[in-house]
Structures are given as structure tokens and as C-alpha cells.
Amino acid sequence: MNERLRGVAEHFRMRVADAAVDDLRARYDFGCVLHDVRYGRWASMGRSPIDELGQVLRAHPSALHRQARVFEVIRPEEFGLLLEARFSDGRPMSWSHFERLATVRSRLERLTLARRIAEDGLSVRAAASIFVRRLTET
Predict the structure, then answer these.
(1) What digits encode the pLDDT tens for the residues 11-51?
(2) Phi-psi region of 59 (alpha: psi -120 to 50; beta: other; left: phi over 0)
(3) I need a surface site. Which of 45, 53, 60, 137 has the fewest CB within 10 A?
(4) What is this structure's pTM?
């Protein structure tokens, strides 16, 4: 491949990876807001504020609950560490990977699994089999 073309391709590969990180950070920040909606000043509104928010956003409430759970389980410092786990092409894990990692209780276990997901280039579905195996081993 032409060296200049290779440079252009690399530049855009990095831009896409950076955009993915920005998207993950925005989702995490929204998880913080959703946590506040679940347990903060809106929690006493009677009807579930997450349900109402889901209607406004045209999002299923279960998706909003999962998004809040990522924030509730994975604290900001750990989130930053997990963002550093990159696939061989420089992309971070997907938000679905983060949702799956939020089901793991141990911080160390989450970091170990994230490293393995990135190193092995595992999809969410492939990573799920590791989660299931780890649960049955304990």
C-alpha cells in the first residue's frame, strides 16, 4: 500500500477509535444522571422516572437501567482503566462489553476480563462464554 494512503487510513482509524471513546464517556456520564434519576430527588415521584424518561427518549427502560448499572458498579477510576483496554486496531470495547463487565462483582476480575477481551478480540457473545465458565468454576 502507498505510504501516504497508509497514513490517511491510520489517521482515520485513530479518529474512529477516539470517537468510540467519546461515545463511551458520554454513555457513562448519562449513567450517572440515570443513577440520580433512580435514587436521587426524582426517585420519590411515584411512577418510575426511568419509565417516563424511556418514553421521552424512546428507549426501553431496561436499557436505561443497564446504563445506570454500569455507572453504579464501575467507578470512574476503574472506568478510565477499562477504556485503556484496546483491540489490536486501537478500538476500545463496546458499550455492550461494559454492560457485561458490570455484572462481574470483583474489580480485579473485571480488569482481568477486559484485558482478555481486548487481547483476544472477543465479541460480547464470545466474552459471555468466559463469564459463564468463570461462574461455574467458582
Answers:
(1) 998 999 999 999 999 999 999 999 998 887 776 666 688 88
(2) beta
(3) 137
(4) 0.85
